[in-house]
Amino acid sequence: MRLRPRGGRPERLGPAAVHGVAAVLLGLALLHAAAHGVREPRVALAFGAVVAAGEWARVTLPGDREHAPLGTAAALAYALLGPLHGLPTTHGVLQVAAVTGLGTLAGLLPLAVPAVRARLRPDAARADTASRRLLTVSFAALLFQPLYNSGALDRAPLTGPWYGVLLGGVGAVTALCDAVLAAVLHAARAGLRYAAALEDELRSLLGIGSAIAATGILVSLLAGEVGLWALPLFCTPLLLAQASFRRAAAIRATTGQTIETLARATEVAGYTPPGHARRVADTACALGRELGLGTRDLALLEYAALMHDIGQLSLVEPVPCGATAVLPAAEQQRIARLGSEVILRTGVPARVGRQVARLADPHRLPDGSVDRSLPLAARIIRVANAHDDLLSAGRGRGLSVAAARLEALERLRLARGTAYDPAVLDALARVGRRARVPG
């Protein structure tokens, strides 16, 4: 299931700037290689070939973000490569950039074949990850290669375990730099706030990011002893890990299809209007982005919003137009609880069921205090659902889209702070002003 980026808003300049800097760096690196030649061409060719193979063997992570773990690990290993089979290497920062860039471009060449291009659907994600890899690997080379080539590491002296500590430190700083850069691109592409995008990237760093960095450092260390054989020997585990990631992606896709099917059950049975679940989900995700949710939270919010009306299947008679917002509070809560019980038996994350169970609970308790235990997702879906019900009712009376939206927002404001969270209503007003709420 693909989260939809914000509509109606031009993409930020972040991706264009990142691509521009990467293109300039690659151009300088290629000019330097043409003018001064390539040091240790056999070594450069071996690492470039693995980068190209890794670019071809990509993996899709949560949030529809693509990674090329093998290619990135090989490029990082080349950036941190000191001795090779006991002999010193002499390549520098610009050659690292040239090998990484050319290897990446070689991995993208199969996309020139129409059949391959149709199957892989090349998009901005590939350009983003390619530019990121070039910049972050060059940054790692900038931290390490001048120290190594100048002999400063020998004078320190940094030998034995301390050499490994140095590489680990460079790898850690590089991984953080990559997370910051990835957050810039992710925030622009997915329409997230930067803080939420950075949180997503740091969480990803603890998973596949740490595996990539560790593999790159390990290859660069062991290449000093076994030479280029370190590349196939120690990149294989990462290749096997990619198979596991693909399996997990297939499971996520199956989960998404199950949720879409369940969401349509109420429409097919005549309990809700066609497209209601999808509109509520789109509105909820727009509100979630406005309120700073990250990719993982947005995915769970979308799941819950799609299935928020499953409990209506327990009704003997459908609610007119499926508008549960007009039902008594107790009936709304009963439908939500029944829907939650169904969801908890589908294999969907339990958090989704808990969110649906609470979506009909009011923002303020009978004693006047705010219900702090109410999940943000439940508060968002409650507003999104009521908004779509009221908007559909207004359109049914012949109002224009703008007039129906204005009327729906005004009616929701009558219950501001009691049934509905004021922060969510304010977010709805902001999103509505930018014409992002699906109608």
From TrEMBL:
Residues covered by the HD-GYP domain: 251-439
Q: Which domain of life is it from?
A: Bacteria
Class of enzymatic activity (EC top level): hydrolase
Q: Which UniProt keywords apply?
A: Hydrolase, Membrane, Transmembrane, Transmembrane helix
Q: Which InterPro entries match?
A: Cyclic_di-GMP/3'3'-cGAMP_PDE, HD/PDEase_dom, HD_domain, HD_GYP_dom
Q: Where are the transmembrane segments?
A: 93-113, 134-150, 162-185, 205-223
Keyword Chaperone listed:
no
Q: What's the protein called, per UniProt?
A: HD-GYP domain-containing protein
Which E.C. number(s) belong to this protein?
3.1.4.-
Asked if the record carries the keyword Manganese, the reply is no
One GO term in the molecular function aspect is: hydrolase activity
